[in-house]
Write the structure tokens for this entry.
Amino acid sequence: MLGVLRSAEEAMSPREREIIARIAAGESTAGIAAALVISENTVRTHIRNAMRKTGAHSRAQLVALTFEEWTAPARQRERQEAILDGLYGEPPEESASAVPAHSPRTGLRHVPRAPGA
């Protein structure tokens, strides 16, 4: 399905993307039509076309699928950076102690106990 979404997002017109963003912002069909100076039927047509292209069954699903696709590359980069930071980054200050942050034998991180615990 992700392949379908990628081609659907590429196939969406700038107007369809704009209308989806306005739906996500909570605007009504009438509000979108007034803001864009188009008829409500034209707004509905753009929504219907975008839903067909993404395979969405509701406006909520259309927004969710579209924004998931729009933000996926950034989220993927963030996840990769977090993984790399966890593997290669410096240990947090509170766990820096005489005990190594990583056990060479088990590969587990050492988490020091609070004094008196």
Q: What stands out?
A: The chain has a mean pLDDT of 75.
